[in-house]
Amino acid sequence: MAQVLIRAGVVLWIAHVALVLLTWYLSPHDDASIPSREANPREPKRAQSATNRVQIAPEIARTSGEDEHVNDLSAYSSVLNALRSLPALRAANRGRYAIRTRRLVLGGEQRNVEEPQAKTPGLVVVGLDGTIEYAGSEDGLDEYGISAGSLAAVVDVGDLVVMPGLVDPHVHINEASDPDRTSWEGFASATKAAAAGGTTTILDMPLNCIPSTVSMSALRAKVEAMALSKLFVDVGLIGGVIPSNEDELVDLVERGGVLAFKSFMIDSQSADFPHVNLETLSRSMQVIGARFGTSIPYMLHAELAPEEAEGDKNSTQARRALVSESSYSEFMRSRPDAWEVDAVMAALDRAHRTGCHVHICHLSSVHAARLVRFARGLGANVTAETCTQYLLYSAEQIPDGRPEFKCAPPIRQEQNRRELWKLLIEGDAIQLIASDHSPTLPKYKNLDSGNVRDAWGGISGLQHRLLGVWTAATELGNVLSLEALSALLSEQPAAIFGLDGMKGRLAHGYDADLVIWDPEGKTLVTESNFYARHKVSPMLNSVLRGRVLATLVHGELSYVAWEDLEPQQQENSNLVSPGQLLVRTDDSGVLGKVSRLAPSSHLLRLKSESMSPAPPSQCKNENAM
Fold this sequence. Notes:
625 residues, TIM Barrel, 18 helices, disordered C terminus
C-alpha cells in the first residue's frame, strides 16, 4: 500500500510540475529586469562609472587602439614585486606571513573588511603548513594569540581585493595515457590557466581523455599522468557513469577517491563515453544513492532529444544534416531548450525515487532553471550550475561562421540570458557558475572554414570565469557584490562537492587559497596572457573588466601577473607548483572527508591493489563536453 501511495505521489508531483511549466510557457515574460545588488543592505555598494564599463552587449567586444595599454602593469609594480618575494620567503622556512588589504572578502557569515566601513585593514595570516591561521580585521589578531612581531613578512596590497580562491567543478583536462588526446590540454597547462584566472581548485571531468575515467584502471592512468605533471592548483577527479560500468561505481569512490560522478543523457559524440538511457540512469542513481546517500553528487549533461530517449540514432543524424554549416541560429534551434526541460524533469523524477543528489551541469535554459527552482522548493536534493558563456553572451551577438562560440547546450537569446541572471541573483535555481572548460585542437574548431555545425562543441573558459562573470554583472548594472560573486565561484561549489572546511572561504584552518585582483581594472585577453594550451576562445582579443594579479595555493605563489609579460615562463615558470590531488579516501583507504595527497602517493596505493583492465578506447573528435 505504501508503494502505491508513493507512486501516486510521484505522478501527482510530475503532473503539477508539467502544469507549472505550461502556465509559464503561456505567460508573457517581457520584463526581464534584474534586481539590483543594492537591494540587499548586507552587500557593500561600490559605484561604477558608466564610462568605464566594458561594453559587451549588443556587440561582441573587440580591441581598438585605445586598448593597447590596458595590460600595462606599472600601476601594480610595487605590489607585484612584494608578492614575487614570497617564494623565497617560503623556501627559507621563515615562518608565517600575512596579506593586508582594505578589501577582504571572507565568505560565509563572517563580516567582510571593506572601506569605508572598516576602521582598520583586513589581514590574512598564512601558516607554514599552508593553512589560514587568521582572517579578518587586523585589530582582531591578538584574539588568536598572534603578535605582529611573529610575522615574517606583511605584504600590503592596498585597495586590491583579496578573496577565496575560486573552485571550478566542471573542467575537461584531456590528459591520461593517450598522447594524441593529451595534446588538446594537459594538467600543467590547464592548472596554470586556472591559477592565472584566480581558480585554486578544479574538478576534472571523466572525458575527453582517453581512456575515459570509467574504471579503476582508467583512473590509475589519469593519476599516473598527474604524478608526472606540474599542478599549479588542486585537482579532484570525477568518475564517469556509462551503460556498462555500474559495477565500478563503488570502487571509483572508495578506492579511487572520486568526488562526484558524471553522465550524458544525450549522445556525447564520444564512443569512449556513451550516454545513459533512462533505465541506466535509474539503476546508476540507485547504486549511488543507496551506497553514498547525498554525499556524492551525480552530475548530468541534461539534454534529452526525443530520438535519444527512444534510441533512434538515425533521427539524430538526419536532424543534424538539416542544419547549415555556418549558421549559429540554426545550430541553436537544433538543440532547443525543451531538451533541457525534458532531461531535468526525467532526472528529478528518478532522483526523487532513489535519494541520489543530482547536479545539473551547464544550465542554459531559463525554463529548465525554473524547474530546478520549483523542485528545490519541494525539498528535492538537486543543485545546478550555469556557465560564464551563458551569462556573458547571447545568440543575437554571435555572427554566422563563428564556431568559437559553439557549445552544448548552446548560448541562447538575450531575453533568456537576462532571465538567467535574474534567477542566479535570486539564488534558488542556480547555485554556482562553472566554466565547462572544453578545449580541443584549433583545427577541430573550424576557425578557417567557419563551419559551426561540424566544429568541436566546447569553449576554453577556465582562465576567464572570474573576469567574464564580473564583466557581465557590471554591464547589467553592478548586479553582483563581491560577496555574492565569491559565493557563486568559491563557497557554494566547495560546499556542494564536499570541500567545505577546506575550500571556498577565508577562515581559520582553511587552505590558504587566495586570489588578489582589481575589480576596477581591465584585461585585454591576448595569446601572451592566455595560459591554456591552445589560444582559442571567444574572449580572445576582448577587453574584460577586472585584473587578476596573483593567486596563492596553500600559501604558495602559483601565479603572478608579471608572468604575462614573460611568455617563456608560461612553460618554465620559476614559481612552485603547489597543487595536490583531492580524494575522498584517507591514507587507510577509508571513505571520509576530502583530503589532500600528492598524486604519486595515491598512485602507489592504486598500484598496490588489483586492477581490472582498462576498457578499449574508440573516442572520436566530435562535440563531447
